[in-house]
Amino acid sequence: MPKTPREMREAIIRNLQKNTGKTFEEWLAVLKKHGPKDPKEARKWLKEEHGLGHGQAGMISAELVGGPSFAKSPESLVDAQYAGPKEELRPIYEKLLEAAKKLGKDVRVEPCTGYVPLIRKNQFAVIRASTKTRVDLGLALGETEPEGKLEAGKVQGTSERITHRIALQSPKDVNAEVVRWLKRAYAENA
User: Fold this and answer.
1) pTM for the whole structure
2) Where are the domains of the chain?
3) Which of 120, 142, 138 is nearest to 129 (CA)?
């Protein structure tokens, strides 16, 4: 069973001809020749006019804008998050990433378009450049009572698993307290 978006995409592409009678490339050619150019409209068109499933139609229509974000290189996704006015925040991200990688060999870093999830068996943290002056470290800590820098609340645009956040404005903010909360989220999400 596919576990990551990348594995899901590979499974959909691999099974497309068997399930629909056309390969991924054939569906893409049909879409480019006859379908709408807007990805959302294209997905709807593929579903309504051709009976494709949501995932199948989404994978095909995403090609109109260069493919799904997870198919892009992780480095390019992170570079885009910390470009322009958020460039100054990159050292905070790097310091958090360094701390996360020290937690264990099972830590996976899977950048998305707007944030970077940290995954063990489950997603235990996210790193997001939320504003021009702040990086939020989101943590999956369940019912934990907030204390110190730890606040209850989601990080906008991220997983529902994220229950708490720590706002960081400088690499110096990634201190022992922040690392302690990161370790706890890692331990609780094994």
Assistant:
1) 0.67
2) 5-71, 74-188
3) 138
